[in-house]
Amino acid sequence: MVFRELVSDNEEDLRVNIASIKKKDGLDKFNKDDDRLCVIKVYAPWCKQCKSFGKHFRKLAIERGDAINSIGEVVRNGDVRFGEIEYSSNTKLVKEMGVNKFPTVVFYRNSEMIGEIVCKKDAIEKISAEIDNHLSG
Fold first, then answer.
1. d(CA 110, CA 114)
2. In 3D, which of 121, 1, 131 has the Cα closest to residue 52?
3. Band of pLDDT at residue 11, cut at 50, 70 and 90
4. CA–CA distance, 88 with 120 (Å, rounded to integer)
5. What is the pTM of this model?
6. What pLDDT, in 10s, does the model give residues 73-106?
7. How far apart are CA 10 and CA 13, in angstroms?
8. Between the CA of residue 101 and those of 23, 79, 84, what are the distances in Å?
9. Quick one: which of 44, 126, 31 has its CA closest to 81?
10. How does DSSP classify residue 89?
11. Cα–Cα distance, 77 to 5 (Å, whole number)
C-alpha cells in the first residue's frame, strides 16, 4: 500500500509517495528497489507524538521524496525514498530493527541501516540535516 497525499492541485494532481512497509521481505524489497537513501518512519497508531510527527514527516516527503500522479506514475524523482512501518502489525520486524521508541526514523542505504533518530520536538530539522549529510557524503 502506498500513502498518497495531494502535493499540488494543478492538472497533474501530484501526490507524495510514502510506501507502507510490511514484514521483513517488504523492507528488503523497498530497500533494494533502487540505490537512493531510504528514510523510514516507525510509528505506533496509539502514540500521540507519532500522529503529530506524521504531519511533519509527510511535509518532508513532499519536499524531498518522489511525486506521483493520480494513476501512480512517478512524475518527479526525489532525492530520497520515504516509507513507514506501523508497529502493531509488524512487531517482530520492529524488534529485529532494534527500534523501541516511537516515533523513530531509520535511514537505509543499500539495504544497510546507517542511522536512526528518535523523534522529539526538533526531529524534522535533524532528519533533514541527516539526509543532507548522507547525500553529500
1. 9
2. 121
3. very low
4. 21
5. 0.88
6. 999 999 999 999 999 999 999 999 999 999 999 9
7. 6
8. 19, 27, 15
9. 31
10. T
11. 16
